Amino acid sequence: MPATRPDLSLLPRPGKVSPRPGRFTLGQDTSVRALPGAEPAADLLRTLLGPTTGLPLPPSAEGRVVLALDPQLGGLGDEGYGLTVGPQALLLRAARPDGLLRGVQTIRQLLPPEALSGGARGVSWELPCVEISDVPQYSWRGAMLDVARHFQPVSYLHRYVDLMALHKLNVLHLHLTDDQGWRMPVEAFPRLTSVGGRRTQSLSDGVPHAGAYTRAELSGLVRHARERGVTVVPEIEMPGHVRAALAAYPALGNHPERHLDVWTRWGVCDTVLGVHEEVFDFCRTVLEEVMDVFPSPYVHIGGEECPTGEWESSRAARDRAAAAGLSGPGELHGWFMGRIGSFLVEHGRRPTGWAETGSELPPEFTVMTWRDPAHALTAARRGHQVVTAHHRTTYLDYVQSTDPDEPPAQPGAPVPLHAVHTNEPAPRDWEPEDASRVLGTQAQLWTEYVTTPDRIEYLTYPRLCALADRAWSGGRSDWAGFVERLRDHTARLDALGVRYRPLTTRSLATASAGTAPPPR
Hints:
Residues 9-134 form the Beta-hexosaminidase bacterial type N-terminal domain. Keywords: Glycosidase, Hydrolase. It is a single chain. It contains 17 helices and 18 strands. Helix 1 (39-53) packs parallel to helix 2 (97-110) and helix 3 (154-166) runs parallel beside helix 5 (215-227). The protein has helices at 39-53, 97-110, 154-166, 191-194, 215-227, 243-248, 277-293, 309-312, 315-323, 332-346, 373-381, 391-394, 417-421, 432-435, 453-460, 463-473, 479-495, and strands at 16-26, 32-34, 65-69, 81-85, 90-94, 125-134, 140-146, 171-175, 177-178, 181-182, 198-199, 209-210, 231-238, 298-302, 350-355, 366-369, 386-388, 438-445. It is an alpha/beta fold. A hairpin with a 2-residue loop joins strand 9 and strand 10 (181-182).
């Protein structure tokens, strides 16, 4: 897409773009014809454009904006679309509903940036004539937001989803529980939020912190995301990273007589769930409510960074390991994950977990590899579905440069914009069978040092733009082309009020440093 056509500087980059002469005008008299099955996409178009452009875009059988589902377009898959903009009409087609939703976001990007901000209501808006055929490379294009360390209001999660959808990202991985906070209500265990949702201070600022969502808020978020083609994948940590749950219900631990507080430090806490049946009853009850609120086929149960010291020193845990035929309490982690994974499978869900090595989770798990890129190949060769989340290319809680003015962030070397754009979920030298098991990739934003939406957006953008570009477009990293498109795309971010890190010569540099991952 040439620099002389900033209106075609689309992000992520479409598969095929053919500019055509002329312009198409959206005006007060423009109506929308939605063929059967395309009504949700037409509703989204009105929802997104009506308030900012002042255009009603009413439904009409004679509408010049036509949205159509055509199952015969099998080559477009679940999310691909074809968009033809001519001087007299706009036609958006897809084989599946989500494809139409992706096309709606492309229409938004073809409009002038002012059409995203509501700055000039009631006027006509022009789109360039163009023909686009577009299919994503990967089916999992996500962003993980940690709301356990620092709670964020549900209104901001709606905005977070809206910005994801603009960039054709389709998975919001919501990290709801950890040592420092439990944010999801569970009717049978009210102390999870009343006690586990509060801590006396935070290591980064010394200020008390509290927050929890209601069931209605989470259900509303799921609906809001679904209308935009985004799936919300919940994460409930176990058997480690559970200090907040143990503060609420000490009987779930290996020392039921001990009363703990919600952890006020960062890093890896050594308290873990016990392995007695009361714990599994608890986990099943929690996950039943999780599945009731979140229809996602994937349910994430964490599983990483689980110290085994408490099990090794517990007579009950050692006896449990012996009764299960394990060689010792160190094997209780895999046994625990297997039991919970089987429960989720029985309920028609796909258990998902963080992989420390790529080889330790039961075979039914979809794994997220984060420590080393080699672990993704290890997992794929074992037959796992894989989502790559390597910390040196997808962890947005690291600083973006060595500039001394960068705000506090996770200790470690920077993860600059260029490093994110080099992210390659399935490298080209993999065997095709192994590469086929990679669902995609996602960014991670752990929030130990991230307290506000402003900080979230500063750390997230424009780095998430880079991840979205590669996850959708695939292929080799066209860094120069991405930078050219990003320079134009920032006008859209400005129109939406995104508090992104400004583009500078340093941020557009190509050098990146490596470091070992700190405790998550």
